[in-house]
Amino acid sequence: MSDRVLRPDVAILAAALPPIVLAAVLAAGASGAEKPARQDPADTRAVTIRTVAARTVTAGTVTAPTAPAGPRLADFDLRRGTGFAAPIRMLDRRLARSDVSAVLESSGQSRIAHGCARAAGVPSDSLVLCWDREDSTTRAWVPQGVSSVSDATADEEWGGTALLVSWYARRGIRVSFVNPSRGTYRHVLLVQPVIRGGLATYEDIGVHAGGIAWFGNRLYVADTRAGLREFDMSHIYDLARSRAGSAAGGQVGLYGGKYHARGYRYVMPQTGNWHYTSGLAPVDRCRGTGPLRTSWVSIDRTGGRRPVLAAGEYCGAKRPLGRVVTWPLREGWGLGGSGSLARASWAATLPDDKIQGGVRTNGYWWFSRNRDSGSRSRRGQLLLTYRTRAGWADVLHRAASYGPEDLSCFRGQNRIWTVSEHAGKRALWGTPAEPCA
Questions:
Q1: 44, 95, 129, 427: which has the highest count of C-beta atoms within 10 A?
Q2: How many independent structural domains does the chain possess?
């Protein structure tokens, strides 16, 4: 097995290849599959890169860390919360319900723009979607999480080529429903329903929303300290069609007998939550043990296996490194199946620091890494590796955009999608990735 693992000298050459060539070579050179003991349960791929050019190469760092002691799986078990059935029943009687298709096809949407790739530092072989001027430059809202219809369904036939992007603000989170086929997108405000004074209303959600994962009718949103928040994609309120609703004004919730959502037409109430049984994660630091600081999430539907939800934590340059964990998903049910407990199926320490997103595809792991220390002047990186019995194999690094965030595999496109977060350097983009299939 060892003679098939990427050697550092070969990996450096590979890192300098055009990405689309590298993806093809990786696919052609992949052979054999090994199931490591208590490692990633997906088939791991041994890779050989053939020399395709004789030239001097300048490339970034290539690392091949040895396997540390594995994280304790029990630290990542999740328990379903009590939910919000009572206020949602009351809201249902006053507000018109809508769904994903209606949001994607609604009138009055923002237009997808063009010309942002250079400013965002997007690799040249990528598909690029740009926000309008306001969303490209605002510092009030910051994009973070990415998911798509490819995560939602096995056949990718719900919502066309729809993509979702989460944003956080000082008070609140929203999700952009992006419809590339129409060249439009619309923001939907995510809220937490409550009962006050015997009346149902809702309020802002104050989390970072660093990752999202769309699975069937469920949308999972990363809650950094607690675990995950769950939303029902078939349970969206259309305030413009509701006699008790208003799509105007800056309020959130029930004011003057009308329901508001900061001027947005659509609002999606939280329907559930999943909390770590081991308690809350630390506020502002990584410990390397205990509950995960849930920074990002993704879904793996590749390889013909049962789909899984993956999550990881962003940790800075100081040790310990962050961790990554997976849980099984059940079609029609999602996390935990019909029960109230979701047990982690696999976990490992991440191969590098400052990991902003990650996704597994056919045994390969892709990670986005932020190299910036605050100046916003350095482009991020995409990392490609896989698991062996000894830990992570050699890691290939390639340049990404500035501030790359959450990752999602769009299987029908053979592309990994991400979003760049910095104001004035924003883009939603997908790069060729042959193992994403």
A1: 427
A2: 1
